[in-house]
Design goal:
18 strands; mainly beta; Immunoglobulin-like; 248 residues; globular
């Protein structure tokens, strides 16, 4: 009788059904969201551009070491391998990155014109990048983007073809420094982007980089000329041997 009572008490304490093992904190968090940057790319036939994929858990923690599968909706227009989009023929395609049941897409537009067919009214060579203004006043940049000096809203990658600067701005003048760039609008407002470790972008802040153009100073202020002049000098690379990564 005592044995039966003891067994009943044990069953009541343990409960019934299956029980998952306790979380020991070592179980990898699953992928909850996928982000592709930039969300849209334009490349000429034969040109390439890299998409940056970011995987995050439900807690917003960036995940690494996960397998990402890349696909293109139209291989006759664009192919993709490890995030590198290559233009095949003029048209549009949807690029998809998938991991652990989650996916995200980016649009790819392939133009028939070659990379050298773009028309610019002004060109501004920098240290490791070059920027230019189209006849319509739209800024484009290409080259190194390790410190966001191209102004795409992203960081890293090297672009061998002109890329539209984020923000849909229109400039009348442009100046490129070693690791940052500035432009002036018709109203005299200055916008800058790129490396800002010493506050050289002139917006009153000092994050190490601005990924997108930020307003330098109000139009017509005494600091306006200084803001643009700051982008002109191209210091020797020797003076910048130890450049950290962008951080906010």
């Amino acid at each position: 009788m005592h044995r039966i009572l003891l067994a009943a008490l044990l069953l009541a304490a343990c409960g019934s059904g299956t029980t998952s093992p306790p979380d020991d904190g070592n179980t990898p968090a699953p992928v909850a969201t996928i982000t592709l940057s930039p969300p849209a790319v334009t490349v000429p036939v034969g040109g390439t551009q890299t998409l940056i994929v970011t995987l995050q858990s439900s807690a917003g923690v960036t995940l690494s070491g996960r397998t990402v599968t890349w696909t293109s909706s139209n291989l006759t227009v664009a192919t993709v391998a490890a995030g590198l989009v290559t233009g095949v023929s003029a048209g549009t395609a949807t690029i998809t990155a998938s991991s652990e049941g989650k996916s995200q897409t980016a649009s790819a537009t392939v133009t028939a014109g070659s990379a050298g067919s773009a028309t610019f009214s002004t060109i501004a060579p920098g240290g490791l990048h070059t920027c230019a203004i189209t006849p319509a006043g739209k800024p484009c940049c290409w080259g190194a983007n390790n410190l966001s000096q191209i102004g795409l809203g992203t960081i890293a990658n090297t672009y061998s073809t002109p890329q539209a600067v984020a923000g849909n701005l229109t400039f009348t003048a442009l100046s490129a420094g070693m690791y940052h760039t500035c432009g002036v609008t018709a109203a005299g407002a200055a916008w800058c982007w790129g490396w800002n470790i010493k506050g050289q972008l002139g917006d009153g802040t000092r994050p190490s980089c601005h990924f997108r153009p930020v307003t330098c100073t109000p139009a017509g202020s005494p600091l306006q000329a200084r803001c643009i002049a700051g982008a002109m000098p191209t210091r020797s690379a020797k003076a910048h041997r130890s450049i950290g990564r962008c951080r906010h």
